[in-house]
């Protein structure tokens, strides 16, 4: 039996995704998590840096380079670089809370008793979440564009925006990166059946463990390539390809690499997160509340 047959067909997954999407949009957690990133991304990535430059906190010529990165032509790389690692906590929390609360409230048991198909349930959740992330990415990008245009006006710079191709590529990269972080949150929620536990483990990983692992692998001979399989370096590679400055450090964007390989790594993480989530749900008894 094919995967499509086991999940009730593509139409069944789409119908389930529509139901989950409606439920997600009615939850305050969705608006809080997405709204926090929509505000925090442009604030820390643009406003704070501009204030530091304006107050003389960065000496020349570095100040001019930082300011150039805040203007509209540099927007594709600047916005994408904000996903390493600043977007990760917000979007991981989004996935962990939306799915983890299903266990806390006991609604997973109700859904599975209704026999929608366990793999179909996970695929529908994932698809709905990807749509929510896409909306958050567009909103954050729009706010960032407005802030960047304001900075350009204050500095008397031209009104030239980024090339259309680079803009679309940046949106796609941000959507992919954000979706992967959210799906990792979903995986942790299914594994721990608790939003709090999923958030704790996820934040420790993206903010502490992955950075430590990157730093360790960078100094060990012959294993530096392993860090390219981590989420942070993969997203950072895309940001560098879009114009963000490369930084040879264990925290932040990183030195860059092959963007095609980075896309493959991120897609691999997405497939792994959804696949393991489906496996966990299929092999468990119907969970009870708590």
The largest β sheet comes out as:
none
What oligomerization state is this entry in? Answer: single chain
The count of domains is 1
Order of helices and strands: HHHHHHHHHHHH
| DSSP helix fraction | over 70%
Q: Structural class of the secondary elements?
A: mainly alpha
N-to-C CA distance: 34 Å
Mean pLDDT reading: 83
Count every beta strand, where a strand is a DSSP E run of 2 or more residues.
0
How large is the share of residues in beta strands? under 5%
Number of helices: 12
Low-confidence parts, pLDDT < 50 over ≥5 residues?
Answer: 1-7
Rg on CA atoms, Å: 20 Å
Which geometry do the CA atoms define? globular
Describe this entry's structure for a reader.
Keywords: Membrane, Transmembrane, Transmembrane helix. It comes from Pseudonocardia humida. This is ABC transporter permease subunit. The chain crosses the membrane at residues 31-53, 83-100, 121-154, 166-189, 196-220, 260-281. The chain is mainly alpha-helical and 290 residues long. It has one domain (3-283). Helix content is 74%, strand content 0%. It has helices at 3-6, 9-25, 28-54, 62-68, 75-81, 87-105, 107-113, 118-154, 164-192, 195-219, 231-241, 259-283. Helix 8 crosses helix 9.
